[in-house]
Amino acid sequence: MEEQETTAGMLATVGRMLAKLVRSSALERGDEKLALGQLTETATAALGVERASVWRFSEDRSRLDCLDLYERPIGIHSCGQISSVQAAPAYFKALDSERAIAASDALADPRTSEFAETYLIPQRIGATLDAPIWVSGRLVGVICHEHVGEARVWQPWEELVAGAFADCASMILATSERVRQAQALAEYGSKLEQLVDERTKRLRAERKLLETVFATAPYGMAFFDREGRYVRINDWLVRLNGVSAEATIGKRPSEVIRDPGGARACEQMIASVLATGKPSEPFEMSSDHVVPHPTFLVSAYPIADDEDVACVGCFVVEITAQRVSESERAQLLERERAAREEAEAANRAKDEFLAMLGHELRNPLSPIQTALYLMERLEDVAFDERAVIARQVNHLSRLVDDVLDVARITRGKIELRVDPVELSEAVAKGIELASPALERRGHFLEVDVPDIGLEVHGDCDRLAQVISNLLNNAAKFTPKGGRIQIRGSRVAGHAVLTVRDNGAGIPKELLPKLFDAFVQGERQLDRSQGGLGLGLAIVRGIVAAHGGEVTAASEGNGTGAEFTIRIPLLVENPSAVQPDDGDYSVPLRGGRRRILVVDDNVDAAHMLARALEQFGHETTTAFDGPTAVALATEFRPQLALLDLGLPVMDGFELASRLKELPGLGAIKLVAVTGYGRPGDLERTKQAGFAEHMVKPIEVFKLENVLETLFEPQEQSA
C-alpha cells in the first residue's frame, strides 16, 4: 500500500512538471531549442538520472542527430552529436517496435550493448531508459534517460514517465515544425506579394512607355481588327489623314484615306496579312492632298492570339527626304560622269598636244645640232657661243624626250625591247648617262650592285633611263659634295634597287603624288634645278611596264630621300636550279647561307635580316606563316629563324609546313622567341627545331649557332 502511494505521488509530481512544460511560452512560440532544454532538465529531475537527451533522425534516416543533451551534475546543455543507425541494428530495431527500451544493465542488454565501447563505458553509464518519439504515426527520434554508475532496475511507473516525456518531445517537434512551416509560408506569401507588386509596377511602366511611344512616334502606327477596321491610331497618322481619332475608329481605310489608290492598297495588304498570318511586303504611296507631295513606305504585320491572327499592326514611315536624296545623288552621279568624260577628253587632248609639240620641237633641233657640228670643224671662232648653244640644245633635247616619253606612257604606247638582262648592266649605263650631273655638283657615288644574280626580263636601255633619272633627281636635290648610294639585292623573287641621297628630302604632303607628271617640290626663284617635273613619272611608267613598282620614302625636309624599285626576277628553268635530291645544305659562296627570317614584329625582322646580311648571308623576310610558306617555295632557304607567336599560323605549324615543301626536308630551324621556360625548350626540340634562342638575340651568338649547325656537313664535304 505504501509503495502504491509513493508511485502515485511520483506520478502526480511528474504530471505537474509535464503540465508546466505544455503551458511553456517556448512551446507556444515554436522555440524548439528552448523547449527541448526545459524537457531534458525536467526529465533528469523526474527520473533522478544524471543525463537526458533528445535525438532526431536525419532526412535519409541513416543516423540520429542530438538536438539537446543535458548533464545534470554540471548543469550544461550540448548538441550536435551523431549516432549511426548502421552501427547499432539491434537497438534501432527495438526502438521501432517497443514502447520503451528499459535496459537495467545497459552493458549486458543486447539492445544497448552495441554502444558499450563507443559510448556507455567512456561515459560510465550503467542503465538507460529510452523511449521512441512518434509524430503523425512516423518514428522521428528518441528521448534517452541515462543513469551513471551501477546497474539500475527501472520501475514500471518510470517507463510510463519516459513514454510521457517522449510524447511531450513529439509535441515540441510537431509544434516547431508547424511554426517553421507557417513562417516559411508567411515569408513565401510576402515575397510573392512583393513580386506581384513589382511586376505590376513594371507592367504599368512598360504600358506607359508603349503608350508614350505610340502617341509620340515620328511615324504612323495603327491597328486593325479582323474586319479590317481601325481599332487604334496614333497622332502622327491622324495628322496625315486629316481625320480625328474618334472619327477614324471603327472605319475602314477607304473611309478615311483620301487617296483611293492608297486606301485600296492598304485594305488589300491588311486582308493578305489576315489570310496568311505573315508580314506584308512594304509598298510606297504618296499623299496628293499635301504639297509638296510626300512619299511614304507602308508595311503591316500580324499580331497573333494563340494560333489565330487577332489583329493587324500597320506602320507608315515618310521617306520623302530619302527619295529626294536618291534623286539628287543620281543627278550628282550623272554630272560627275559627264565631268569625268570631259576631263578625260581634255587629258587626251593634252597628251596628243604634248606628243605633237615634242615632234614639232625636234624638227628645228636637228638642223641646229648639225650646224653646230659643222661650225666645230671650222676655225676656232665664237667658241664660247657654240658651247652655250650646245648646252642649251642638249637641255632642250632632254626636255623634248621627257615630253614624248610621258605622252607615250600616258597613252600606253611605250615600246620595250625585252631580253634577259642583268641589272648591273643597266645600272652601269644609267650611271654613265647621269655622270655629267654627278660630276658637275661634285657628288660621291657609292655603288653596291652584284654583277650577277639580279637578272630580269627587260629593256636594258629603258632600265638605264630609270637609273639615270633617279640619279639625276638625287644630284639635282642634293647640295654639292653630297653622298648618293645605289644598292641591289634579291628579296622574295624580286630584284630590288635602292637609290638614296642625303639631300633636301621630300615633304610628307608631296609623297603621295610624287610620281605624277609635272609634280615638283618647292623651287628657288631662279629655277636653278631646271626640269619639267616629268622624270619620276617616266620612272614609274617604265618600271610598271616591266611588271614592277617604285616607291619613295623620306622623313621630311633636310633628311634625304630613298627610292626603291622592285622588278620580278627572271624565272629560270626549275630543273636548272633545283637539285634532284633536295639537299640545300651547300652554301652559296664560302660560309654564305640563304636564310628566311619570320617575325610578326616588322622592325625586329628587318633588323635581324640586315644584321645577317652584314655577315654575308642572303636573307628574305616574312611577317606571318602563309607568306613565309609562299616565299620559301621560291627562295629555297637553307635555314629559317622562326618566331613562335605568329598570327594566323604559329611557329610550330609553320615549321612543319616548311619541312613538307619539296626539297626543304633538310632545312635547319631555329626558334627565335620570348619564351624560354624548360617546357618551351622541350616543345621546340620535339617539333624539330635545331636551336631555341630567347629574345633579345645577340647577333654574334646567332652567327656562332649557324656555324655550329652547318659545321658537321662542311667537314664531311
Short description:
The chain is α+β, with helices and mostly antiparallel strands and 717 residues long. Helices cover 48% and strands 21% of the residues.
Q: How would the blueprint of this fold be written?
A:
Layout (H helix, E strand, L loop, with lengths): L1 H21 L2 H5 L2 H16 L3 E7 L5 E9 L4 E3 L3 E3 L4 H9 L3 E3 L12 H8 L1 E11 L2 E11 L7 H61 L3 E5 L5 E4 L1 H7 L3 H4 L11 H17 L6 E4 L8 E11 L2 E11 L1 H58 L5 H28 L8 E4 H18 L3 E5 L6 E4 L1 H17 L6 E9 L2 E8 L33 H11 L3 E5 L7 E8 L5 H4 L16 E5 L3 H13 L3 E5 L2 H11 L3 E4 L8 H10 L7 E6 L4 H9 L4 E4 L4 H18 L1
Parallel strand pairs: 14-16, 20-21, 20-22, 22-23, 23-24
Antiparallel strand pairs: 1-2, 1-7, 2-3, 2-4, 5-6, 6-7, 8-9, 8-12, 10-11, 11-12, 13-15, 16-17, 17-19, 18-19
Helix pairs in contact: 1-3, 1-6, 3-6, 10-11, 11-14, 12-13, 13-14, 17-18
Structure, explained:
The chain has 717 residues and is an alpha+beta fold. Helices cover 48% and strands 21% of the residues. The protein contains 20 helices and 24 strands. Strands 1, 2, 3, 4, 5, 6 and 7 form a seven-stranded antiparallel β-sheet that branches. Strands 9-8-12-11-10 form a five-stranded antiparallel β-sheet, with helices on both faces. It has a five-stranded mixed β-sheet with strand order 14-16-17-19-18, with helices on one face. A hairpin with a 2-residue loop joins strand 6 and strand 7 (138-148). Helix 11 packs across helix 14 (535-545) and helix 17 packs parallel to helix 18. The longest helix has 61 residues, at 156-216. The chain is flat. The chain starts with a helix and ends with a helix. Mean pLDDT is 79; it is low at 523-530 and 573-590.
